[in-house]
Amino acid sequence: MALPLVAIVGRPNVGKSTLFNRLVGRRTAIVDDVPGVTRDRIVATTDWNGRVFQIVDTGGLVPDTHEPLEREIAHQVEAAIGAADAILFVLDARAEITAVDEDIARRLRPESRKVLLLANKLERPGDAAQAAELHALGLGDPLPVSALQGLGTGDLLDRLVELLPPGDDGEPSAAIRIAVLGKPNVGKSSFVNRLLGEERVIVSPEAGTTRDSVDTRLLWQGREILLIDTAGLRKSAPRESGIEYYTYLRTLAALERSDVSVILLDGTEPLSRQDLRVLNLVAERGKGLVVGVNKWDLVEAETGTAEAYARAFCEAAPSLAFAPLVFLSALTGRRVEKALETALEVGETRRRRIPTAEVNRVLGELVRRTPPPSHRGRAVRLLYANQVSVEPPTFVLFTNDPEGIAESYRRFVERGMREAWGFAGVPLRFIYRADAGRRAARAGR
Ligand code: GDP
Ligand code: GDP
To answer: Which residues pair with 5 in a beta bridge?
Structure first.
């Protein structure tokens, strides 16, 4: 079973992201110079009283559309209705009810069983009275909360978990979680069918006819694998045009729970923006990445086609050159198992730890070969480094001047470390940090 999904909806500025952070907790955030780590974090897994669930801030769902705000919010709400098991509808109880609030309420009313109405920003004594007028929205009793101060969130969570479907939360940590992602019609259902070795998933050439997503546990070569499959999202997608948001939301949710993603591309087509967005998302989330170039049976079997594809891929997405490409056909089954095997290897690699002495040996060689360019007339030094965590492997590099390390030099360091250790399919994080000892010395202490 997939983890239950909870969506936070509401117009801008009512406190959705504040509530998200409050419910998820900020304990694991890395705030250093890692792009995309804290920013744009809109899906997280959390738990309350032993119930594990995922939570999404739909205010952060921004596929590249240029629509009026009302349309965009409407799509976010549609996505939430289509994908979520429970919906937290946030209102600013200190402000008047707006037309947008009313629109959202109207759309949510038929789904009221799974909606909790939250009267937010109620932290001052006497504020509670203001929540009363929200009854008019026809979604039952509003729950007074203050996302900012954490007031009422315990009650909120108690009510919330009651709305969640019963499920087995036990995703044993031994199983490696592999998500199969890719745009519609790329062959996800066919790929999963092949792996499961039976026609459990209905495959059809028509869009919108596959079943909804499920997780499948399988034992393969003695390894336990949890296959998180997003095929078939379209069937239960909202009738309206919120489909893109919906797919995006489910993709994010699947990705968040995975260790490694197999992104399927259509080998007969050039890489699209939609493909690139999902690929980059995987890298940003620090998940393992395997690229499955599917429908390869349709590509002419000339020597060098695969090499040409790989070159074009690296040109289109230079920052993803670390991803292994597997040329496969879900239709014939060719190299489908190879993709799975590669995903397992990537999962292992993502847990790899490089000893500190080795990190510094390689760093020392790189710096000797090409020292960092000076910054504002001052020498920039890389002093020492270590690997501070795994999944994804994260390295901290100490320097006299974190700001002074140019982007091109950061790429040089990453390239050099990958040359030394491989890390195929694994995004690496590098945090450049000021060396405290030197800073103190410079300050004359
Ligand atoms: P979003 O656009 O719905 O995600 O709203 P934000 O979470 O960004 O919050 C909008 C503004 O409302 C920010 O300035 C928050 O600090 C503020 N805010 C959020 N929750 C509360 C609350 O419970 N009480 C008060 N007083 N302000 C809040
Ligand atoms: P999904 O939407 O990503 O789940 O894609 P499907 O698995 O439903 O596949 C969409 C269409 O592509 C179906 O008609 C499949 O038969 C076809 N297809 C999938 N994989 C391959 C492949 O490797 N080769 C060829 N020729 N067709 C494929």
So the answer is: 54
Q: How far is the CA of 65 from the centre of ligand 2 (A)?
A: 27
CA of 333 to the centre of ligand 2 (A): 11
Q: Which atom of ligand 1 is nearest to the CA of 90?
A: 3
- CB contact at 8 A, 182 and 263: yes
User: 18: Cβ below 6 Å to ligand 1?
Assistant: yes
CA-proximal residue: ligand 1, atom 17 (nearest): 15
Write out the two tokens for 343: 């995903």
Minimum-distance ligand 2 atom for the alpha carbon of 296: 23
Tell me which residue has tokens 């976010």: 76
Q: Give, for all 445 residues of the chain, the pLDDT tens digit.
A: 567 889 999 999 999 989 998 998 754 444 444 444 444 568 888 888 888 888 989 887 766 667 788 888 888 898 888 888 899 999 999 999 999 999 999 999 999 999 999 999 998 767 667 778 888 899 998 999 999 999 999 999 999 999 988 765 555 557 899 999 998 889 998 998 888 875 444 443 333 333 344 677 788 888 888 888 776 444 444 455 566 777 788 888 888 889 999 999 999 999 988 899 889 889 988 999 999 999 999 987 767 889 999 999 999 999 899 999 999 999 999 999 999 999 999 999 999 999 999 999 999 999 999 999 999 989 999 999 999 999 999 999 999 999 999 999 999 999 999 999 999 999 999 999 988 665 555 554 4
For the whole model, what pTM was predicted?
0.80
Indicate if ligand 1 lies below 6 Å from the C-beta of 22. no
Neighbours of 174 (CB within 10 A): 8
Please tell me if the CB atom of residue 14 comes closer than 6 angstroms to any atom of ligand 1.
yes
Q: Which are the contacts of 18, defined by CB distance < 8 A and separation ≥ 6?
A: 147, 148
